[in-house]
Design brief:
By secondary structure, the protein is an alpha/beta fold. The protein has two domains: 240 residues; 218 residues, Nitrilase/N-carbamoyl-D-aminoacid amidohydrolase, CATH 3.60.110.10. The protein is 48% helix and 16% strand. The chain is built from 18 helices and 14 strands. Strands 1, 2, 3, 4, 5, 6, 7 and 14 form an eight-stranded mixed β-sheet that branches. A six-stranded mixed β-sheet has the order 8-9-10-11-12-13, covered by helices on one side. A hairpin with a 5-residue loop joins strand 11 and strand 12. The longest helix is centred in the middle third of the chain and has 28 residues.
């Protein structure tokens, strides 16, 4: 391979990474993903035609660069975890691409490319449900900051966007191949028109459908007043640099300020951030200094409710360890949870335990095995446990709300469980300051817009240091707060009972892709077996 060819392959590799990173870094640029994979496909085609060896170096590098460009900010919180996330996630993507390349030995024509698209979307579908999961770069998330193009997510969910991206890229690539091979010159006018029309339709028809769906979608429901409290407490100080009473005083001051403006008898949902306090005992709320303080505050506002994120603990007696994740504290066993509580002045308290926990930081995957290893290492991994499925919390007036705790807002099919359980609106509580002033918190905010479209639910989002926001049923950010500023955001969200097609039926695109990938994999296995038995076939 000469130097110019090598430069071309590396140039296409880099171009792929840049084009696919742009939607996650630059607002309103999701459309670049519709042709962003083409450079990678061109690199593969050129390398195959020239019989280049070790092509995996190029496509693995491409995926490493894409992951690094978009999620480098994870290293601000954990260098080792960030590096592992980039290389491990890229490895999975590269393995899929490697299977596609291998399938071409047995499949001809367009079938390997169909296999690639189906296998990729099937992987995204399975990735959402895996214990070790980092689906931040699901292709459909490319439109999180370009929501005007994907109002039809209420039917398909984000994997519908993944399908659109693959269909667009493969269509454009197909036309390019026809031109480079000379097949275009052999086609008659009808064939050329069909190819161009089909490619343009794949790209632009979903945009037109989205415009029509968005135009017909109206904000509906019963209004409810909310007040998002952004205390702006540095997370690196909150567990040692600032006393619990000082932090409680900050939030209490914000609560009273908001209620003074609204009126003592106003029906207001007050929302605080994730893991605001760590002194809540699930078995007995009354032992919590924070819970008692805020209950007394709420007694002055009988129609107000407070939704707050807490690091909760459940205590167990007995000589035997109740589960692999439990830790010993004196004579008791302790189970840790990342939870949300919704309380009012009467002391009534609903609690929800975060289900989608961050691997390593919050939970130990496959605890029966890894907890033993973690014990030998001195207990360096998180041991939180969550619920089996999402459930709703209820305000003082009995209104059911969903509360996605931080990372859970990335999982569309999971979040539909809140609506199936009766949620009439959604909240998201988070603490994004671990990553500093990087693209991470902005990307995380944008994913809430996708959830609003899929569920057609208003979302009130509270971030400890921002960005807090109110998002309408079209995924539009109606109001928001600045980053790294103590502030409050008062507004209105609408409660509604509508269930979208996606809520009722789930990830149909993912299930179909999984079926197609399995059928093609079985067909491929048969071809491999047949060819090995009879090389002349």
């Amino acid at each position: 391979m000469d130097r110019k060819t090598q430069q071309l392959l590396w140039g296409l590799t880099l171009l792929f990474a840049v084009l696919m990173a742009i939607p996650f870094l630059v607002p309103h640029c999701g459309w670049t993903a519709l042709f962003g994979i083409v450079p990678l496909l061109c690199m593969d085609r050129i390398a195959t035609q020239l019989s280049v060896r070790r092509v995996w170096i190029y496509h693995y590098t491409a995926f490493v660069l894409w992951n690094a460009f978009t999620t480098f900010w994870v290293c601000w919180a954990t260098v080792g975890g960030g590096i592992f996330a980039v290389f491990a996630n890229a490895l999975q993507m590269s393995l899929i691409f490697g299977l596609f390349r291998w399938s071409r030995k047995y499949y001809g024509g367009t079938l390997p490319y169909i296999f690639l698209a189906a296998l990729w979307i099937a992987w995204e579908k399975l990735y959402f449900g895996a214990q070790i999961s980092w689906p931040w770069l699901v292709l459909g998330n490319s439109f999180a900051r370009t929501t005007g193009l994907v109002q039809w997510y209420e039917w398909t969910g984000s994997l519908g966007g993944s399908l659109w991206i693959w269909a667009s890229n493969l269509s454009v690539f197909g036309v390019m191949c026809a031109l480079s091979d000379g097949r275009w010159d052999c086609w008659n006018t009808k064939a050329r028109t069909a190819a161009l029309t089909g490619t343009l339709a794949v790209i632009f028809v979903p945009m037109a459908v989205s415009a029509a769906v968005g135009h017909n979608c109206k904000e509906t429901g019963t209004p409810m007043e909310v007040a998002v409290l952004q205390p702006n407490i540095d997370p690196y100080n909150k567990f040692g640099g600032m006393t619990r009473d000082t932090q409680n005083a900050i939030l209490e001051g914000q609560m009273r300020k908001v209620m003074k403006a609204a009126g003592d008898s106003a029906q207001v949902l007050l929302i605080g951030p994730e893991t605001f306090t760590g002194d809540v005992i699930v078995n007995d709320f009354s032992t919590s200094r924070t819970w008692n303080r805020f209950r007394r505050v709420l007694e002055d506002y009988p129609n107000a409710s407070l939704l707050l994120g807490v690091s909760a603990h459940e205590l167990f007696e007995g000589a035997e360890k109740p589960s692999p994740t439990a830790r010993k504290a004196g004579d008791l066993w302790v189970e840790s949870r990342n939870s949300a509580i919704l309380m009012d002045g009467t002391g009534r308290t609903d609690i929800y335990h975060k289900t989608k926990l961050v691997v390593g930081v919050e939970m130990t995957p496959y605890p029966a095995f890894f907890c033993r290893i973690d014990d030998l290492l001195g207990g360096v991994m998180g041991r939180c446990i969550g619920q089996e499925r999402p459930t709703v919390l209820h305000t003082a007036q009995g209104e059911p709300l969903g509360c996605a705790v931080c990372y859970e807002s990335v999982y569309g099919d999971f979040c539909r469980g809140y609506v199936l359980d009766g949620a009439r609106a959604m909240t998201v509580i988070t603490n994004d300051a671990w990553w500093g002033n990087t693209p991470g918190y902005r990307q995380h905010l944008s994913y809430s817009s996708l959830r609003a479209i899929e569920l057609r639910r208003d979302i009130a989002r509270c971030g400890n240091t921002g960005i807090s926001a109110i998002i309408d049923q079209k995924g539009r950010i109606v109001e928001s707060t600045p980053w790294w500023e103590k502030t409050e955001l008062s507004g209105t969200i609408c409660l509604n009972d509508r269930q979208t097609f996606f809520v009722r039926n789930g990830d149909i695109v993912g299930r179909l892709a999984l079926l197609v990938a399995l059928l093609l994999a079985l067909s491929l296995a048969v071809r491999v077996f047949t060819k090995n038995r009879n090389p002349n076939v």
